Amino acid sequence: MHKAVFLDRDDTLIEDVPYLSNPACVRILPGVVEALREFRKAGFLLVVVTNQSGIGRGMYAEENMHAVHGKMRELFAAEGVVFDGVCYCPHAPGQSCVCRKPLPGMLLDAAAKLGIDLSASVMIGDKPSDVEAGIAAGCCRNVLLLHGRGESFHEGSTSGGGFEVADDLLSAARLVLEGQSAIDLKKMK
Ligand SMILES: [Mg+2]
Ligand SMILES: [Zn+2]
Description:
Layout: E1 3-7, H1 32-41, E2 44-51, H2 53-56, H3 62-77, E3 85-89, H4 105-114, E4 122-125, H5 128-137, E5 141-145, E6 156-157, E7 162-166, H6 169-188
Parallel strand pairs: 1-2, 1-4, 2-3, 4-5, 5-7
Antiparallel strand pairs: 6-7
The structure holds magnesium ion and zinc ion.
Zinc ion binds next to loops.
């Protein structure tokens, strides 16, 4: 069984462009490449889980999103970072699917397909619905990225359980991986 880090896409990995459908607008956020390399080095699979309601709302076609994801994979691959999965929910909020975050459908699906132990896995994103999906899926660490919004978001709990906060993906990686090495060291004693 693998452990994985589930990653929200917009404002977690790449710049948030509302209803992004143009591959030319894909920009990797600062520190993200380094964070993903550290997770990879620590043995985590990298799985993107993104809500793409723009498809369900008719704002852009599924093929536009695939072009965006192709560009995203290409930019990351140029930095030596390869994703094990890029999962998306194409539905609008009213379509009562089981994959739109905060529901855990995308994580459960990826776990079944890729042989992931959710209880050893991590969810990271910039919205409460991201950490709620991770908690609902049974991830052991769930990190909400603040991007400087420290005033309005606090470390705490949602209906499902606890989550942690970090300012950006690189800080989140350090938070998670330092915690891990502490556990590993304890086990070795
Ligand atoms: Mg986001
Ligand atoms: Zn869905």
